[in-house]
Specification:
about 400 residues; about 0% strand; mainly alpha
Length: about 400
């Protein structure tokens, strides 16, 4: 009964949080954005331009009939949500109806994450931090990244239970929804090879199984589409390679301020080198503390990937937030990360509004740089904590049945 009461309270709180997220994204004029209100008020959502701009309104099949710059499982989710929207609202279906369905599905995925974390035995303070998460208010209606987040959380929890083959397969499915869950796979492989004192042949067999499971899961989702619609299937990869950057990324801030101007190919190269060097340092420095459970280092690896990437879209904060709740030794830097991320969100969108001559007018890239610098400081703090400190106590407890 106690468990029932708690999970009901948590789910109710999460529902209210997601409802606030819906109100935050849907308050703009239902007839269409005017006067850059999507930036001035922060109500921008990818769902609105995708309704007409990616063939969702007409039921076009992603990749086969419509161009889409998302991996295939996310494309399938967008197509399914479009179908539900047209089924429920008929000929009157519009972008705001689609936004409602997108938000609802993301809220359900957030509820799944909460249920998984509660079942795994996460302590109450961290559960409430997810149920009342400020990033969910900002991003539950923003786009479709909650799908990959759910896969990433599930893979982490499977690894915690030493179900590493299943964790690798789940991370492979996450990779079919978004790129970043791939960062978990090298950790699982290294853990299989060097994280125990089992005979070498047994460790090699496990590492091979992990690799095959991840490849099979990714291939099962991708190959049927890649085989028949390769050009549109590869749009995600070509689009990612050709993007120059976003306003809150390190590379763009440095370029805009005139401190270090780089081309897109240079950013691709330098970002990859910076990430690889930092990833090696994170794994090397965290080896002694986390050798038996290297998967915990997924959180600092993800944070470092976000910092070094040429693209730092606002919703990336939601990728990291549940991982921080799971593994961050201390919550104070998590709170700073959330506060600075919220400031960066509004600074970036308000700057877009300013460039259109809309309120608040006076925002400049330096405001974005200040908020992003504070967020980066919090993330570096979190990376250092994750490498050198023991994980939260709940990590070592047995999952609840």
């Amino acid at each position: 009964m106690g468990w029932d009461r708690q999970i009901k309270r948590l789910m109710l709180a999460l529902a209210l949080t997601c409802a606030l997220g819906w109100l935050f994204k849907s308050h703009c004029a239902p007839g269409g954005w005017t006067g850059s209100e999507q930036y001035s008020t922060g109500c921008y959502s990818d769902a609105v331009p995708f309704w007409d701009g990616r063939g969702v309104a007409g039921g076009e099949v992603p990749y086969f009939q419509a161009r889409l710059e998302y991996p295939v499982l996310t494309g399938a989710l967008i197509w399914a949500e479009g179908g539900v929207t047209r089924l429920l609202f008929g000929a009157s279906a519009n972008a705001m109806h689609f936004l409602f369905i997108v938000t609802l599905v993301n809220a359900l995925l957030a509820g799944l994450v909460l249920w998984l974390l509660r079942r795994a035995g996460m302590d109450d303070r961290r559960l409430w931090a997810w149920a009342l998460a400020p990033p969910l208010v900002l991003y539950v209606g923003h786009n479709w990244d909650m799908l990959a987040i759910a896969f990433a959380v599930a893979a982490m929890l499977l690894a915690r239970e030493s179900r590493t083959v299943a964790a690798a397969a789940t991370a492979g499915l996450g990779l079919a929804a978004k790129l970043y869950p791939v960062l978990m796979l090298p950790l699982l492989g290294l853990g299989a090879l060097f994280g125990s004192d089992d005979p070498w042949l047994k460790r090699l067999r496990l590492a091979t199984l992990l690799s095959l499971a991840a490849i099979a899961a990714w291939a099962a989702a991708n190959l049927p589409v890649a085989a028949f619609a390769f050009t549109n299937w590869s749009e995600f990869y070509t689009f990612s390679s050709e993007r120059s950057g976003t306003a809150a990324s390190f590379w763009e801030i440095m370029g805009v301020q005139g401190w270090w101007v780089t081309s897109t190919p240079d950013r691709n190269l330098y970002a990859a080198l910076a990430f690889l060097a930092g990833a090696a340092a994170i794994i090397g420095l965290g080896w002694h503390q986390h050798r038996a459970r290297l998967w915990i280092l997924f959180t600092p690896l993800l944070a470092w990937f976000m910092l070094t990437n040429k693209v730092y879209s606002p919703q990336f904060d939601l990728w990291l937030y549940p991982m921080l709740l799971m593994t961050a030794p201390r919550l104070r830097p998590v709170a700073l990360f959330v506060a600075a991320g919220t400031a960066a969100y509004f600074a970036e969108f308000w700057w877009f509004a300013s460039t259109d001559g809309a309120w608040p007018y006076a925002i400049t890239p330096i405001h974005i740089a200040i908020a992003a610098a504070i967020r980066a400081g919090a993330m570096l703090w979190l990376i250092a904590d994750a490498v050198r400190l023991a994980p939260p106590e709940w990590i070592g407890r047995q999952s609840q049945p």
